[in-house]
């Protein structure tokens, strides 16, 4: 332990041009002849702030600014300098030593000297990890802390407590014990976050407090696994992507499901809600989510990618080539012609050969028989300029010589690279 004494020197007030003030919380008051920075522990820092003012009515030359004493240091402007009437400068005195004892120093300026004192007390050293990091809410993490007497004298361990709603002492700390030099003891602190987000606490050892921090985190979201509920792997179908979870969800979250189609441009390959990106909500207890989609009118490969939390899964569905699909038909009769309309889709976009067979009211084939044509060129040109997938509407007009009322119905067959389709019989 060290005890140092400084001599207090006071200038004659009759010649004083400068006045020293103590600054605390933004307020200033005349500095006392002796100012105590208080008690600290080894290695801790104490500070005091002062303001030196020219209280005379004329400019004054400042030539001296110093602090003399073990552990004391001064932060101040360089001298010499001139201060105008009522002008002032700020000073900061810092004290820090590692040996226990009582210390003093003289703070001097032109015509002003005050005595500064400080006391360094013996203290136990606390070590450990004060940041618990991220911990899932509802679960716990523990850290062990050690108090050690690194001083050359015995110390009685003061009261040890923990503050903060999410922090708690586990077991009995070594408070009240007399620690010889180099002796140490341990205790455990537990962090149990009840909510998400940052949490703060403190370990209190005697009259000193040490901040504790931790972050409450939501339980991780489950991993997604994709399946497809589709009645038939074909065009013009509606199905659902089922996102199953590896475990029931324990927290709220939002997942995403993306659809990618490898094939000709077809906006109808999409989710039922529209577009090719969808989200799904997850709530505690959920085991799966489902999103409806449609397969469109073109063959190709549909790939779904689900992402939830930091995990993802991917699944591809192949839509094969198929014979032309018919979605609607209509027949119209005029005085000298008939028109046949067929709407549908060709997911191969290769339709060519067409056949039209007309019947009378008794169901007999009319003398014209079946009319064959190859529209491959027309369809090829149409699909090349279409961004509607395989959808089409066929308008076929036939000139009739004779009585059109004899024509009662018509069969239409459509052929593409995957096969031939016969449309439902069309009535006029």
Q: What's the arrangement of secondary structure elements?
A:
Layout: E1 2-3, E2 18-24, E3 27-30, E4 34-41, E5 46-54, E6 60-62, E7 65-68, E8 72-75, E9 81-83, E10 88-95, E11 101-109, E12 112-121, E13 125-127, E14 131-136, E15 141-148, E16 155-156, E17 160-163, E18 167-170, E19 178-179, E20 184-191, E21 197-205, E22 208-217, E23 224-229, E24 238-245, E25 253-262, E26 269-271, E27 277-282, E28 288-295, E29 300-308, E30 311-319, E31 325-333, E32 337-345, E33 353-359, E34 365-374, H1 376-384, E35 391-399, E36 409-416, E37 419-422, E38 426-427
Parallel strand pairs: 1-11, 4-12, 14-22
Antiparallel strand pairs: 2-3, 2-5, 5-10, 6-9, 7-11, 8-10, 11-12, 13-15, 15-20, 16-19, 17-21, 18-20, 21-22, 23-24, 24-28, 25-27, 25-29, 26-28, 29-30, 31-32, 32-35, 33-34, 33-36, 36-37, 36-38
Notes on the structure:
By secondary structure, the chain is mainly beta. The protein has 4 domains: 2-121, Immunoglobulins (Immunoglobulin-like); 125-217, Sandwich (Immunoglobulin-like), CATH 2.60.40; 224-319, Uncharacterised protein PF12988, DUF3872 (Immunoglobulin-like); 325-427, Immunoglobulin-like (Sandwich), CATH 2.60.40.4070. Helices cover 2% and strands 57% of the residues. The chain is built from 1 helix and 38 strands. The protein has one helix at residues 376-384; strands at residues 2-3, 18-24, 27-30, 34-41, 46-54, 60-62, 65-68, 72-75, 81-83, 88-95, 101-109, 112-121, 125-127, 131-136, 141-148, 155-156, 160-163, 167-170, 178-179, 184-191, 197-205, 208-217, 224-229, 238-245, 253-262, 269-271, 277-282, 288-295, 300-308, 311-319, 325-333, 337-345, 353-359, 365-374, 391-399, 409-416, 419-422, 426-427. Strands 1, 4, 7, 11 and 12 form a 5-stranded mixed β-sheet that branches. Strands 3-2-5-10-8 form a 5-stranded antiparallel β-sheet, with no helix packed on it. A hairpin with a 5-residue loop joins strand 33 (353-359) and strand 34. The radius of gyration is 46 Å and the shape is elongated. It starts with a strand and ends with a strand. Residues 1-15 have low confidence and may be disordered.
């Amino acid at each position: 332990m060290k005890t140092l004494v400084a001599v207090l020197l006071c200038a004659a007030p009759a010649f004083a041009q400068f006045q020293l003030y103590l600054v605390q919380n933004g307020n200033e008051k005349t500095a006392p002849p002796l100012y105590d920075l208080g008690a600290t522990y080894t290695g801790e820092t104490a500070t005091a702030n002062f303001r030196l003012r020219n209280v005379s009515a004329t400019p004054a030359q400042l030539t001296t600014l110093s602090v003399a004493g073990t552990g004391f240091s001064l932060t101040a402007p360089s001298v010499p300098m001139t201060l105008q009437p009522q002008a002032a400068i700020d000073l900061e005195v810092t004290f820090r030593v590692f040996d226990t004892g009582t210390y003093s120093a003289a703070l001097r300026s032109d015509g002003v000297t005050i005595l500064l004192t400080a006391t360094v007390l013996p203290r136990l050293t606390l070590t450990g990890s004060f940041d618990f990091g991220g911990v899932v809410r509802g679960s716990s993490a523990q850290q062990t802390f050690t108090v050690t007497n690194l001083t050359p004298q015995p110390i009685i361990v003061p009261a040890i407590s923990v503050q903060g709603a999410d922090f708690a002492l586990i077991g009995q700390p070594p408070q009240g014990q007399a620690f010889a030099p180099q002796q140490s003891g341990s205790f455990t602190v537990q962090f149990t976050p009840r909510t998400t987000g940052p949490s703060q606490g403190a370990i209190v050892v005697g009259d000193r407090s040490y901040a504790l921090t931790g972050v409450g985190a939501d339980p991780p979201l489950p991993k997604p696994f994709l399946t497809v509920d589709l009645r038939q792997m074909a065009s013009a179908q509606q199905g659902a992507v089922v996102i199953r979870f590896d475990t029931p969800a324990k927290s709220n979250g939002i997942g995403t499901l993306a659809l990618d189609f490898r094939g000709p441009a077809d906006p109808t390959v999409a989710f039922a809600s529209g577009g090719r990106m969808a989200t799904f909500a997850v709530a505690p207890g959920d085991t799966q989510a489902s999103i409806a989609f449609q397969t469109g009118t073109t063959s190709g490969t549909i790939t779904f990618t689900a992402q939830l939390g930091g995990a993802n899964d991917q699944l591809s569905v192949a839509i094969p080539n198929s014979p032309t699909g018919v979605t609607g038909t209509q027949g119209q009769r005029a005085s000298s012609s008939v028109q046949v309309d067929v709407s549908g889709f060709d997911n191969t976009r290769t339709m060519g050969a067409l056949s039209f067979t007309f019947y009378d009211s008794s169901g007999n084939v009319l003398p014209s028989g079946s009319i064959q044509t190859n529209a491959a060129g027309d369809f090829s040109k149409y699909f090349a300029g279409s961004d509607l997938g395989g959808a089409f509407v066929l308008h076929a007009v036939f000139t009739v010589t004779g009585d059109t009322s004899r024509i009662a119905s018509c069969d239409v067959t459509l052929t593409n690279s995957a096969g031939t389709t016969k449309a439902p019989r069309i009535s006029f």
